[in-house]
């Protein structure tokens, strides 16, 4: 089995790194808070003393939260250690940062692959992610067996890594619309005496099948927002990414301002701000004074 590095051991990263360890790979681990690596070291992983040391491995993966985290970790010193290797960036970052990182890795002779994922931590732990990839074909081919450990399907989207990040932003934009639609219509129907669970099952079992209406419909109906699988603040970040993508291709999304307003109201509410992003439904469900 091969030696792999994994940087970023939050709930998603830990689940993914754990699968690579369990598949028999020698996994070098790094996280800004070192304690996050402890359970994975107990399972057979090895701790890297720095991000730069982790990137010196021939194939490295990262799952970091946002542009700020990526920029802080991928310093010039760290990227220089990736010479002749492959880095697979799996976090949801902006296409503009992906372009920048592609250039910086290329300048030291490394190959950069964008590979954001669809799925929550439980899905990652089961190896059932959908992985959106874009980058040099030979690099994607080289890491394909590793991606197969992490996901149920890999979607190839071309050779420019930033396109994978743009597509991820577009997918999340659809999810946000679905959650808002569920929230608004649950608010309408429950005020008429209809049970929210019955209504969301009606949606999911008739015209709106699929994981979004099934999964988030249940969460919204039961108000099961804690613990969060994906924080509201990260959803707000995804709206910014969608806006950046739309601007870059001269599209003016009509619903984007309304969705931004909903997320901003949720983040300003101390009872909602730390919950799962589907808790935006509560902005509609609560009666306005």
Secondary-structure-based class equals: alpha/beta
Number of domains: 2
User: At the first level of CATH, what is the class of the largest domain?
Assistant: Alpha Beta
Taking the alpha carbons of the first and last residues, their distance comes to 61 Å
Poorly predicted ranges: none
Give a count of the beta strands, DSSP E runs of length 2 or more: 9
| Helix proportion | 40-55%
Mean pLDDT: 96
Describe this protein's structure.
Helix content is 53%, strand content 13%. The chain is of the alpha/beta class. The protein has two domains: 3-159, Rossmann fold; 165-285, Orthogonal Bundle (N-(1-d-carboxylethyl)-l-norvaline Dehydrogenase, domain 2), CATH 1.10.1040.10. Strand 1, helix 1 (11-22) and strand 2 form a beta-alpha-beta unit. It is globular, with a radius of gyration of 20 Å.
Can I get a quick summary?
The protein is built from 14 helices and 9 strands. The protein has 289 residues and is an alpha/beta fold.
């Amino acid at each position: 089995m091969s030696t792999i590095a994994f940087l970023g051991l939050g709930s998603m990263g830990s689940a993914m790194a754990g699968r690579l360890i369990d598949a028999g790979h020698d996994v070098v681990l790094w996280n800004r808070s070192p304690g996050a690596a402890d359970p994975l070291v107990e399972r057979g992983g090895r701790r890297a003393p720095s991000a730069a040391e982790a990137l010196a491995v021939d194939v490295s993966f990262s799952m970091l939260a946002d542009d700020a985290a990526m920029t802080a970790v991928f310093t010039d010193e760290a990227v220089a250690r990736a010479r002749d290797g492959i880095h697979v960036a799996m976090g949801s970052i902006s296409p503009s940062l992906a372009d920048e990182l592609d250039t910086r890795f290329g300048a030291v002779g490394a190959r950069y692959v964008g590979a954001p994922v669809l799925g929550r931590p439980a899905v990652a732990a089961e190896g059932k992610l959908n992985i959106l990839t874009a980058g040099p074909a030979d690099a994607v081919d080289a890491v394909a067996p590793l991606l197969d450990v992490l996901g149920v399907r890999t979607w190839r989207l071309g050779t420019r890594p930033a396109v994978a990040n743009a597509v991820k932003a577009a997918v999340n934009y659809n999810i946000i619309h679905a959650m808002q639609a569920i929230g608004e219509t649950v608010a309408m129907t429950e005020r008429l005496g209809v049970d929210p669970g019955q209504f969301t099952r009606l949606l999911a079992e008739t015209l709106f099948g699929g994981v979004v209406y099934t999964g988030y419909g249940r969460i919204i109906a039961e108000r099961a927002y804690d613990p969060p699988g994906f924080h509201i603040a990260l959803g707000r970040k995804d709206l910014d990414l969608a806006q950046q993508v739309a601007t870059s291709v001269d599209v003016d999304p009509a619903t984007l301002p309304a969705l931004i307003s909903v997320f901003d109201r949720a983040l300003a509410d101390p009872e909602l701000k730390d919950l799962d992003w589907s808790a935006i439904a509560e902005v509609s469900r609560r009666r306005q004074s």
